[in-house]
Amino acid sequence: MTTTPDTDRTETPTAALVADYLQAWNSTDPQARRALIERVFAPDARYVDPLADVTGTDALDALVAGVQAQFPGMQFSAVGEVDAHHDVCRFRWGLGPEGAEPVVIGFDVATVAADGRITAVHGFLDRVPG
């Protein structure tokens, strides 16, 4: 367990991984984003949701850049706690202006390898603007 620097709460390794995952989606600097993606994801990780199905860190990086271009100024944030067992975790996230109500809410299920990196993400969209 690690302690987050800005709070007194204790964070599990899986919760820290999800925080890094969300930060990868938020990082608009291409080099910083790529470094986060390589730290969070296995090289051959697969990401699949209703709008995308990509494999590998190059494709993930391109997907994240595309989402950032589609939703400029929006930030991903955790919605609730991370639930994990064995090598699987699930978590909800929101996408919206920083500090505001999310306009998109989703739910991801991730598989985590023994080295602590994500090997697969199965995403679901719970709320999408019309």
Automatic annotation (TrEMBL):
The record places domain SnoaL-like at 18-120
Q: Which domain of life is it from?
A: Bacteria
InterPro entries, alphabetically? NTF2-like_dom_sf, SnoaL-like
Q: Which Pfam families match?
A: SnoaL_2
Q: Which SUPFAM superfamilies match?
A: NTF2-like (SSF54427)
- Protein name according to UniProt: SnoaL-like protein
Q: What is the originating organism of this protein? A: Pseudonocardia kunmingensis
